[in-house]
Amino acid sequence: MKYFRTHVLVGVDESAVQAGVKEVLNALRSELARKELEEEVSILETGPLGYFGKGVCFQVYPDNTTYANVKAEDIPEIVEEHFLKGRPLKRLIYNAPESGQYDFAYDKRIVLNNSGIIDPENIDEYLAVGGYEAWEKALTGMKPMDIVDEVKKSGLRGRGGAGFPTGLKWSFTAPLEAKEKLVVVNADEGEPGTFKDRLIMEGDPHKLLEGVMLCAYAVGASKAYIYIRGEYKLCIERTLKAIAQAKDYGILGENIFGSGFSLDIDIKIGAGAYVCGEETALIESMEGNRGIPRSKPPFPGVEGAWKKPTVVNNVETLANVPAIIAKGGEWYSKIGPEKSPGTKVYTILGDVATPGLTEVPMGTTLRSIINDFGGGMKDGKRFKAALVGGAAGVILPDSLLNVKMDYNSLAEYAAVLGSGAILVMGEDTDMVEMLYSIIKFFRHESCGRCSPCRLGTQQLTRLVKKVRNGKATEEDLDQMIIIADAMFKTSFCALGQSLIMPVKSAIENFREDFLNRIKA
Amino acid sequence: MSNVTVEINGIMAEVPQGTTIIEAAKKVGINIPTLCYHEDLKPTAACGVCVVEIEGTPTPKRACSTPVWNGMKIKTNSKMLRSIRKTVIEMILSNHDVACPTCVANGKCELQSIAYTMDIDPNAVPKILEKKPVDYSSVSIIRDVNKCINCGRCIQVCNDIQTVNALTFAERGFDAHVDTVLSLGMASSACVNCGQCTVYCPTGALHEKDDTERVWDALLDPEKHVVVQEAPSIRASLGEEWGMGVGAVTTAKMYTALKMLGFDSIFDTNFSADLTIMEEGTEVVGRIVAGTKNLPCITSCSPGWIKFMETYFPRLACNVSTAKSPQQMMGALAKTYYAELKGIDPSKIFSVSIMPCTAKKFECQREEMADSGYQDVDVVLTTRELVRMINEAGIDFPNLPDHHDVCLELSEHTGAATIFGATGGVMEAALRSAYYLVTGNDLPDVNITAVRGMEGVKEAAVKINDDLTLKVAVAHGLGNARKLMEKIQKQIDETGKSEYHFVEVMACPGGCVGGGGQPFGSSLAMRARRGQSLYQDDRDLPKRCSHHNPMIAKIYQDFLEKPGSHKAHKLLHTHYYKREKFKGQVVESFKCEDH
Fold this sequence. Notes:
Largest sheet of chain B: 5 strands, mixed
Radius of gyration of chain B: 25 Å
Largest interface: A-B, 34 and 37 residues
Strand content of chain A: 5-15%
Shape of chain A: globular
Oligomer: heterodimer
Strand order of the largest sheet of chain A: 10-9-13-11-12
Number of strands of chain B: 19
Structural class of chain B: alpha/beta
Strand order of the largest sheet of chain B: 2-1-5-3-4
């Protein structure tokens, strides 16, 4: 292997693309060539580094310097000063605010352990860090039911939001006799404030593929589809590239490793409807129909896409599987709390000092996530609330800051882990406006199939507008809860059933904000 | 399949596995309130009203789409259920154009009924309705989206049962609504005017174009000579609207009521149904004897089927009989034969027909339907519109006498004509006469039961003589027709000929007794009952074969010469077009070799 004195890890993800990372990379390459430094400084395009809202970022090793908000025109200066003269360019070095330092907690990561370190577009780099070892182990030494059992033993639960035990889900489909079974990866990721699946696909697409392969082998599927939302262009690009590389290496395709097992993976591109994250609506959309949920039963595991048994799993769920197979279900089950083992990827947004992502064991408190991994509150603001789990989540007040973030602990407060989005709100946040934006979102994203959701979202829009206009009464607030409760009990799918969470938690936990609008 | 035991409101019920809660409840005498479920359709699970509580499940479940399991304990009427149901219905009403007094569905509307029984104030929740324009473009069917509750029944009926694919859901969220495909509007869509959507619509969102005003105008115009004909199936459904029982045959009351309404002359479409058999039967026999390539011969009485064929199966257009439908034959005769007979200026004749059918409104306006020199039939009213006129005139229909003293014209008919209203009826009537036309004898038994009943596609082989056994098929409902036509098309493509000699198609499930103009809410079970009534009427009539109708013999002798004559062709036969898929507009006219 060639020796380089300096390594530059450039975070290439969707937001970096928006910020002009391609131009920066071109400038960097040509500048290094001009200064004849190509043999000394290596450039690695990697996945998301974990900084958000900071434009183009890159990390320089071995001195561990982070540059942020870099533009193409800054490159000659950086190359001249840092790479040639060895003096890091202070002007562009990113320093986390004093209130909190970034802690990317790589040592705790399972899903994102390679993200920001390896080149996601190069299968050799994934192989070099132990990639596809679990796949080889499974295919050469394990029976499909062994995989199901191992995943059951791990206690892994679905990371899409509902938290259904993954092994149990697989065990419904695995024994079925069918001409063809399918695995569908839900990479539609429509929950506002959530982009964890994007980070996984951008940072380590092969890990997802390995999870898909293990799942397909476990349940006996010969075809898998990754349903990616259309806006995730880089994910689509990298996933396709990864599929092609895996096929090229014989890791994917016909009679893999001479095992007799064959698998094909393809992607389907979604058009961005929130409801298509619901597994049966996703299947409808995949089939080319209007994205509306189906009646269950039959569950997709028995009769899914094109009437074939179909296991639908979230990206993060599957990205956990290679480690489970490599290290054993028991190892996994000991991470975090007993009933919700493993790690969870969170996207921390809002009034925190260092918004971004973190992957930490389940059961970490909300306070710790905000303070230790989100850098604490921004600009010394007082914490007011956190919306946990995306728009279909609960707005937690400060009295619940010590709640442990896992399925069961949150359920005690009628809250959900959901997608893992944490929107932190400071003291100046108006809950009326917050709830208004959530209701507007649901009104827009309801598929319109069932009356409670279609009309309930519109009635709630009317009522929350009335509050904003200072024309509401306390009865209107009660009416909002009555409607949201009826929606919870009568809506066809989780979309309409979920609105009760933000509505009830906003009005009950922050009633003052609403009463202020009523009195004013 | 094995049975399971469930408990519903404390009542035990044993039902087959796979039964839904709503069906199980019905078995123990409980009708769970719903706005979208219909016994003939797959549950759309849209309205959210039918939710029930199941012991051990955290949230209520939809009774329409949840199958029972053994030991399931169900409550259909808890305090919580009543409260959330009420909230849902209040919200539905808040987005509904509550115009009950003038709505065609008044008294038949499922939303109105549920609101009434649950004592729900339509204004309890402030209105969120954003009024949209009503689609008046079609000559048959009006679509008022402001009354639509998005139950999805019409879409299922149009796309899955009829396979016409004119309707779809458009947009999403609160803006989601039923629309014509590509928002083309009913008249410019693939809609074949069958009107099945109107029969299944739970509210007044889909209904026939009401033409009663035009008929009143004619009746009250002293210059006009207003004639009326009534389709075979009307007599078996009309009485239902006054609670006379499903399938009650009310022929005499119908004649009397029409006379009381002021019609100058009363015909009976049954007469022209017999005439259709003579023309169509002669045509079929002619094609078989000549061994033409246009076999099978396919019936042409159902205008919904005709437009469907023109849109989706134009390659089979030359197989369709050129005989007009009974309505149009009668229309052509009214302004020629009848006008001559009575010495009436045909321009003064206003011809009305009472049909079970919304597509007949379209048929009478087809430009080729003017062989008398005038539009042959001026106005078509559906069963529902006639009921409205009778009610407006204050006629006490159920208490009219069962014998009439109305002087009828062009009304003499046989049992063969009356069964035209049920699926298989045209086939049976035609076979009775075809047998006679070939052999010179009558069938030993005129009851051809193999073509009767509600099976989607029926087949039969009828032995005519040692050299000829007719292979026939009957399809009702356009989805079944599509399947049969695909099969025939495939046979012709692959072998040059089809196994069938003669095929009957009726656009509506059950045939005309289930027509799109029949009473709202006509279920398949009701259609079957009406069909049985027509077969009873057939048995009760003294003559049961069209060729035995003395009036038919007379009209050929006096006016039409013989079946298939030049004059008969001019007045009683027609031709077809090829239509664009999706838009249903005419692309080209057909000239078929044999026609």
